[in-house]
Amino acid sequence: MEYPRSEVVINRMATTEITSQNHDQSVADGIVLLDFWADWCGPCHMFAPVFEGASEKHSDITFGKVDTEAEQDLAASYGVQSIPTLVAYRDGIPLFSQAGALPAEAVEDLIGQLRALDMTEIRAEYEKQKAAAEGR
C-alpha cells in the first residue's frame, strides 16, 4: 500500500535586502525593522539568527537588511557608527534605533511595543516636528 506524500509548507518571511533604491518604499507602511550589518562584523553574525527568527515568526512585519559596505550612503544617512544597528519604523515614521546585538526577548518586546502604539498621536507629533525642522 502506498501512502500519499504530505508536504509541510512552512510560512517563512525572508528578510529583504534594503538598498537606497528600495528604501523609501520599504519603510512606508506597517512595521519595518532594519538591520544594518556587514559581513566582517562578528556581532552582526551573532544577531542574524535572532533577526531571521523574528522574521519567520512575524510574517506581517517587513524585516530588511542593509549591508553597510554596499550601502554606505544609506548607512551614513542614518548616522550608523556601530553595527549591528537595529532601526524600527511604523507607518513610515522612524521610532527606534539602537546599536548592538539584541537578544531575541528584546526584539520581541520591541515588536510588542510597536504594535501597541497609538499612531494617531505619534503621526501628529511627527508632522509637527517635521514642520518645525523645515521652518514652517
From TrEMBL:
Span of domain Thioredoxin: 1-116
UniProt GO MF annotations: protein-disulfide reductase activity
Coiled-coil boundaries: none
SUPFAM superfamilies tied to this protein: Thioredoxin-like
Keywords: Disulfide bond, Electron transport, Redox-active center, Transport
CDD domains listed in its UniProt record: TRX_family
Top-level taxon in the UniProt lineage: Bacteria
UniProt key word Disulfide bond: yes
Signal peptide bounds: none
InterPro entries assigned: Thioredoxin, Thioredoxin-like_sf, Thioredoxin_CS, Thioredoxin_domain
GO cellular component, one term: cytosol
NCBIfam families from the UniProt entry: thioredoxin (TIGR01068)
Protein name in UniProt: Thioredoxin
